[in-house]
Design goal:
heterodimer; A: alpha/beta; 12 helices; globular; B: alpha/beta; seven-stranded mixed sheet; six-stranded mixed sheet; about 30% helix; about 20% strand; pyruvate dehydrogenase (acetyl-transferring) activity (chain B)
Chain lengths: ~300, ~325
Amino acid sequence: MIATAAPSRSPRHALNDGDLRSLLLIRHFERALLRLFEQGVLSGTTHTCLGQEYIPVAVSALLRDDDFVFSNHRGHGHFLARHPDPHGLLAEIMGREGALCGGVGGSQHIYHRRFLSTGVQGESLPVATGVGLKLAGTGALACAYIGDGTWGEGAVYEALNMASLWRVPLLVVVEHNGIAQSTPTSAQMAGTIAARAAAFGVRHHHVTSTDVGEIRQALAPLVDAVRAEPSPLVVEFATHRLGPHSKGDDTRPPEEIRRVRESDWYDRHAELDPEWFARIDREQRELVERVVAEVSARPHSRSGGAA
Amino acid sequence: MTRVSEHLNQALHDLMESDPSVHLLGEDVGDPYGGAFKITRGLSGRFGSRVRSTPLSEGAIAGVGAGLALAGDKAIVEIMFADFVALAFDQITNFAAKSTSMYGRPVPVPLVVRCPTGGNRGYGPTHSQNPQKHFIGVPGLSLFEMTPFHDVGELFARMFGLGRPCLFFEDKVLYTRQMFRIDDLFRFELVDDVARVYLDGAGRPDCTLVTHGGLVHRTLDAMRALLLEDDLVCELLVPAQLYPVPPLPGLEDAPHVCVVDDGTEGGTWAAEVATALYPRLWDRLRRPITLINSADGVIPAAPHLEREVLVQADSIRAAVREALS
């Protein structure tokens, strides 16, 4: 067993225990949801972030308690990296007692402290701009997670224009996974996100790394500038969606899915320090198993009974 | 004597003066222009960055207003012409209105979206609409309309007090009319939310009309002609809150009810009012409630064509006469 304090890992292995816990909590939570769907015990739909977990884990450590986070349909990772409360989130998704929003919102509509998600693409950016206007000068910022598909919505451009004009502390995190539901980016986006940001005079930073420490190191001064100047920033992550858009609706050819799997952080981290990884992996898998068992046994949530 | 536009402008000044959490956003609202209808004149000079002239982005303006409201402030958003509120439909109905309840607990969203409505000014099909009907029945959303009888400052206080987003419709023709002054023949009083306009000492009216603020003067012209030329006494009820439809006073004795609505035919506010009244009046009504609406057509620019589409005093008079004949 490795001691918990492991400060001097190699640069290629800059994860600490907390980060790995967070990554694996999200991974096992999402896997559990797909299993629960297969078992027919979840209703509606869900959108898992398998493969993209490292993005909110990297970003959340750069956020302060007074920052406001806006999330989207694929938001479980965003939530768990910010608020490690798998019980409340699963209860919300399953409509059980202790649900974050009484079971009214479900997977895509969570409002907890300063975290808010909603299910219409691009809708959150103008709202985040308004919240950012209020936060400007306090050092806090509004952070909005969007995808590459979101850039089809006009609301994105209206908001970027205002955020740039009015110097709003708005951090736009783009999870560019190359596919919007079933449509490849090449078939739905002309030009680039970088050029679109540039058109509004908004700083853009492209992240190809999947290394949480490396990502943070690069982003930290940029996020500080968002707060201090204040000014908007678009951070575009080149990432991969490991799972289907929602559940069982993956139409990508097998060789493409194989390529995506090869880029996954999970196996890479497991190989770097097998014993350490296996321990925390088991710990988080068992934690999620307990959460599933416990929440599944709860009574239905009541209207107006938000946690 | 105060013009409606001056009254509204003063109400905004008073509100922003008394409540530093109020923001105002809209296209061209800053000085010296002061808004397309000059309603926001003088505000940007007094209240600085709390008043923002925005890009032409109705959707995002409404969204920014909702964001400010979510963050604990209050926002008034001006849509230059009510027709353009269609561009903000998603932000208003899917975000601001739903947010008040979709998170499992009441979330206050103190947001007022001001929408200058209506025709009879020759602005044509995309600058003359009464879009109220498109927002009826949206959970979490309330609709109000400016009238010559209701103090606008009190209405703003009420709307913000609801903690949910409100649309506030302002008929452009009303801007140049006088507040609290109407035809000398009639008197008015406020019964809770509703202005009641009546002929003093006339007893039971032959017909009770219900309308919204923008149609008050056309309806009064019809009532005057009905009285003087047809010997028919009408009473008029004007609620400031359009939806949910508030209780309408004094209809128990009404021999007949007409609802007058400047929106085009089909899925109308008038039908919503009638739906609210039928269960209450069913036993006493002698005939169906008469619904008077603008025609099912776009609103033409040429004045002679526009007149044919929109509700006018003579069409109200004709409809009342026909119903009572």
